[in-house]
């Protein structure tokens, strides 16, 4: 074979081999061209090659945005997983495969939507005949919401239709709603509310494109026309019985509750039956009884007053602030009595002879600036046509200690060995306690006094100090103190005073002077005359 022909044949074989290899190296994707995914789901894009043992893969978006996913390569497969898929994944993804010097590419379009739940129906309150109610239909987390249509129906009647055609300023999940207000009637009983939602994206194949929620109407009628019947009468004698029956209209049928109205206006529940029977009635059973018909949307009540006629009883007295008072303070005494008809109140004061001195016909008796003579027994009487009931209270007016005096006899300054009496006295105040103490830094010492007097026989230096008298009763107390001074017998100031010292010194000078005068007088008598000068000379 000529060399030229061999070269041509060899070159043609190489070209054929290259052509064969290039035809065998292929790429395909799963899904093939496009995938429609609901936001929040997990989406996987797969790129697969044939005709190459060790291909290399790469992924990118057509805008070179981040992949926002995880890539996994295994042999001739490469998978891009987005978990979860969202707005950041709404791109066209391009898979590139390289085998030697050969490169293959294929794209997959990722489109997203959100239509995850059936609509929700909410009512502003119970459906009550004759009262307007607002119905709200909600479609949560919709995208794209500009393709949403909503319908609200009552039975087969369309209440409202709405298309959300406003432009979307940004990609986001939106909750859209439709509201309708209507007034329920008796004809609405048994009907249903239907909320329909449709997402019109025809170019995307997904299911479901329509969602629907149905809510059966529960229509109520608030209780009304409540009626009470009483047997035998609303006026009763103590010990008698009465039966009261109540009825009320409504839908559903109201439940009956019996209560008694208390003095503070609150209701005390008695029964959940339509009939209430009271036996052996007492005065405290008098009052207003209430029957209420109650269902889910309201209640309706009716009242009846029962009167049990009795003589005054349970008379009580309330004293404020207390029945034991300090002189000069004020006191309020309030009396109440039960009975039918309502008893009249009469306040009196019991005298020493047992008679009553009338004071007031008001329920409250007030004494201001009280004195000791206001102490005594006060009587409240509840009186009506059936009888009298009385209550007593004793008022005690106390006086705080006053005019307290603390003295030391014979004096507050005594000598060691003397006897001294420390005495504490108080004004003419009953029930007064007197306590004598000797004060000290280490603590007070309570003295065993008798009638407020404490005697110290042969007083010692350690008995000196501060003595305190405390006079007290339930109202208050007073304090007085004195200082006892005890002088010792060896005290120089007591037995050798400065005056005595001057007298002593003076006497010590006078005696020698008198001696000298007598001496010179005698000499003068001997000579017949005396000269002081001569006397001085004789000494020279």
TrEMBL record:
<protein>
    <recommendedName>
        <fullName>Ig-like domain-containing protein</fullName>
    </recommendedName>
</protein>
<dbReference type="InterPro" id="IPR003598">
    <property type="entry name" value="Ig_sub2"/>
</dbReference>
<dbReference type="InterPro" id="IPR007110">
    <property type="entry name" value="Ig-like_dom"/>
</dbReference>
<keyword id="KW-1015">Disulfide bond</keyword>
<feature type="domain" description="Ig-like">
    <location>
        <begin position="312"/>
        <end position="396"/>
    </location>
</feature>
<dbReference type="InterPro" id="IPR003989">
    <property type="entry name" value="VCAM-1"/>
</dbReference>
<keyword id="KW-0677">Repeat</keyword>
<feature type="transmembrane region" description="Helical">
    <location>
        <begin position="501"/>
        <end position="521"/>
    </location>
</feature>
<feature type="signal peptide">
    <location>
        <begin position="1"/>
        <end position="24"/>
    </location>
</feature>
<dbReference type="Pfam" id="PF07679">
    <property type="entry name" value="I-set"/>
</dbReference>
<feature type="domain" description="Ig-like">
    <location>
        <begin position="401"/>
        <end position="485"/>
    </location>
</feature>
<keyword id="KW-1133">Transmembrane helix</keyword>
<keyword id="KW-0812">Transmembrane</keyword>
<dbReference type="InterPro" id="IPR008424">
    <property type="entry name" value="Ig_C2-set"/>
</dbReference>
<keyword id="KW-0732">Signal</keyword>
<keyword id="KW-1003">Cell membrane</keyword>
<dbReference type="Pfam" id="PF13927">
    <property type="entry name" value="Ig_3"/>
</dbReference>
<dbReference type="InterPro" id="IPR047012">
    <property type="entry name" value="ICAM_VCAM"/>
</dbReference>
<dbReference type="InterPro" id="IPR003599">
    <property type="entry name" value="Ig_sub"/>
</dbReference>
<keyword id="KW-0393">Immunoglobulin domain</keyword>
<dbReference type="InterPro" id="IPR013783">
    <property type="entry name" value="Ig-like_fold"/>
</dbReference>
<keyword id="KW-0325">Glycoprotein</keyword>
<keyword id="KW-0472">Membrane</keyword>
<dbReference type="Pfam" id="PF05790">
    <property type="entry name" value="C2-set"/>
</dbReference>
<dbReference type="InterPro" id="IPR013151">
    <property type="entry name" value="Immunoglobulin_dom"/>
</dbReference>
<dbReference type="InterPro" id="IPR013098">
    <property type="entry name" value="Ig_I-set"/>
</dbReference>
<keyword id="KW-0130">Cell adhesion</keyword>
<dbReference type="InterPro" id="IPR036179">
    <property type="entry name" value="Ig-like_dom_sf"/>
</dbReference>
<feature type="domain" description="Ig-like">
    <location>
        <begin position="25"/>
        <end position="109"/>
    </location>
</feature>
<dbReference type="Pfam" id="PF00047">
    <property type="entry name" value="ig"/>
</dbReference>
<feature type="domain" description="Ig-like">
    <location>
        <begin position="223"/>
        <end position="309"/>
    </location>
</feature>
<dbReference type="InterPro" id="IPR003987">
    <property type="entry name" value="ICAM_VCAM_N"/>
</dbReference>
């Amino acid at each position: 074979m000529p060399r030229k022909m061999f070269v041509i044949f060899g070159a043609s074989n190489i070209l054929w081999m290259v052509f064969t290899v290039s035809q065998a190296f292929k790429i395909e994707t799963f899904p093939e061209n496009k995938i429609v995914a609901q936001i929040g789901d997990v989406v996987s894009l797969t790129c697969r090659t044939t005709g190459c043992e060790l291909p290399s893969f790469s992924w990118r978006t057509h805008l070179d945005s981040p992949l926002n996913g995880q890539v996994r390569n295994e042999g001739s497969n490469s998978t891009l997983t987005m978990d979860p898929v969202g707005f950041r994944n709404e791109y066209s993804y391009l898979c590139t495969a390289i085998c030697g010097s050969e490169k293959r590419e294929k794209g997959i379009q990722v489109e997203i939507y959100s239509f995850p739940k059936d609509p929700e129906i909410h009512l502003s309150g119970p459906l009550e005949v004759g009262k307007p109610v607002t119905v709200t239909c909600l479609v949560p987390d919709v995208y794209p919401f500009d393709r949403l249509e909503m319908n609200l129906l009552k039975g087969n009647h369309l209440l409202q239709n709405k298309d959300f055609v406003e432009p979307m300023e940004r990609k986001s999940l939106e909750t859209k709603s439709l509201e309708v207000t209507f007034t329920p009637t008796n004809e609405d009983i048994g009907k249903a509310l239907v909320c329909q939602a449709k997402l019109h994206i025809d170019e995307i194949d997904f299911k479901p494109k329509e969602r629907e929620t149905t809510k059966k109407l529960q229509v109520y009628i608030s209780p009304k026309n409540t009626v009470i019947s009483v047997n035998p009468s609303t006026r009763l004698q103590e010990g008698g019985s009465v039966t009261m029956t109540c009825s009320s209209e409504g839908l559903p049928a109201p439940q009956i509750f019996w209560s008694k109205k208390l003095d503070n206006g609150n209701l005390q529940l008695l029964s959940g039956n339509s009939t209430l029977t009271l036996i052996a009635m007492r005065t405290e059973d008098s009052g207003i009884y209430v029957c209420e018909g109650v269902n889910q949307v309201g209640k309706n009540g009716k009242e009846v007053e029962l009167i049990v006629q009795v003589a005054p009883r349970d008379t009580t007295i309330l004293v404020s602030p207390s029945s034991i008072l300090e002189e000069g303070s004020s006191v309020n005494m309030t009396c109440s009595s039960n009975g039918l008809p309502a008893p009249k109140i009469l306040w009196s004061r019991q005298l020493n002879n047992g008679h009553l001195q009338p004071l007031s016909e008001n329920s409250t008796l007030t004494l201001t600036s009280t004195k000791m003579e206001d102490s005594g027994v006060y009587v409240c009487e509840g009186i009506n046509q059936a009888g009298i009931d009385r209550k007593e209270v004793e008022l005690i007016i106390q006086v705080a200690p006053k005019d307290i005096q603390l003295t030391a006899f014979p004096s507050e300054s005594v000598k060691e060995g003397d006897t001294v009496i420390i005495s504490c006295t108080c004004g003419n105040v009953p029930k007064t306690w007197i306590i004598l103490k000797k004060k000290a830094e280490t603590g007070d010492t309570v003295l065993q006094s008798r009638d407020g007097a404490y005697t110290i026989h042969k007083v010692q230096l350690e008995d000196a100090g501060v003595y305190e008298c405390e006079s007290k009763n339930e109202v208050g107390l007073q304090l007085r103190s004195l200082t006892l001074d005890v002088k010792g017998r060896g005290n120089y100031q007591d037995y050798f005073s400065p005056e005595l010292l001057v007298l002593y010194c003076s006497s010590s000078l006078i005696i020698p002077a008198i001696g000298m005068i007598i001496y010179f007088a005698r000499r003068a008598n001997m000579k017949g005359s005396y000269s002081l000068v001569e006397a001085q000379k004789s000494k020279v």
